[in-house]
Amino acid sequence: MLSYIIKRILYAIPILIGVNLITFMLFFMVNTPDDMARSQLGAKQVTPQMIEAWKEQKGYDKPLFINEKAKGVDKITDTLFVQESIKLFSFDFGFSDSNRNIAQDIKQRMMPSLAIALPTFIIALVTNISLALLLVLFRGSVLDTSMMIIAVMIMSISSLFYIIAGQVIFSKLWHWVPISGYESGWGAIKFVILPIMIGVFAGIGSSVRWYRSLFLEEINKDYIRTARAKGLSEISVLFKHLLPNGMLPILTGVVVVIPTLFMGSLIMESFFGIPGLGSYTIDAIKAQDFAIVKAMVFLGSVLYIIGLILTDISYTLFDPRVKLN
Fold first, then answer.
1. Which residues of the chain have pLDDT under 70?
2. Of 58, 80, 103, 275, whose Cβ has the fewest other Cβ atoms within 10 Å?
3. Counting beta carbons within 10 angstroms of the beta carbon of residue 216, is it exposed (0 to 12), middle (13 to 18) or buried (19 or more)?
4. What is the reported pTM?
């Protein structure tokens, strides 16, 4: 097990380097360091001296990938890409282009993101699996057909519609919850309850259809027939035999998501004014703050890789037939 984890971590290093390289290329294809300096300085009359001073202060005065003025290995190492990548791999996110401590911002904004993402994840998982089991229990009935039609309808509508409709109905018309904003402590409940409800409802269509398909593949297998032949009720068959075996493929999609929960929802947080990591990333993109963008992309990649490793490990715990090599 330990050797497998070490091997996967070593495999992750070139992946992270590649992700970081793509982030650099995409960002600097749109913005040059001079453009970033003008945006951050914000002055009407920005002199070349001011731009050069800002670039030197932030380290953007170095060449991106190849330093023609340097000699030997320094041609590669004395570049913006290598210098910034070394900091990222040591999890030194440094300061943003607007002089904010990125690591401190992440710590502060992590909890608001979790306040939405974690309840949404747990409620959606329980709700979707329960509904899928219910439809399998009444498979082929009017209830099953009707729910599948409704699920397709829910999938066909953009989540933006649910966000706007929820704000209009529950905030503007009924005044049940604030339309946007956030506060710490227990007062956050009134701000996060609507985003959680919308998050659960928006994903219910695709998830229920997927879980239902997985359970229907299991329902006609031999071990299910054997359980029925022993005289077990259909509900006992579903919960004692079908559910545990059907959970193995579900495990893949569930475990891999867990580490990335605190990254937040870009759209949800922006619309509801939640000061989480999702809105933090969107604001950084708008402000052309490359330091924050590369830090968040790198952190998201690391968390996703951790999720994949946890998925493989969890398979061995739930299915002894699976061996890690």
1. 1, 43-44, 318-325
2. 103
3. middle
4. 0.81
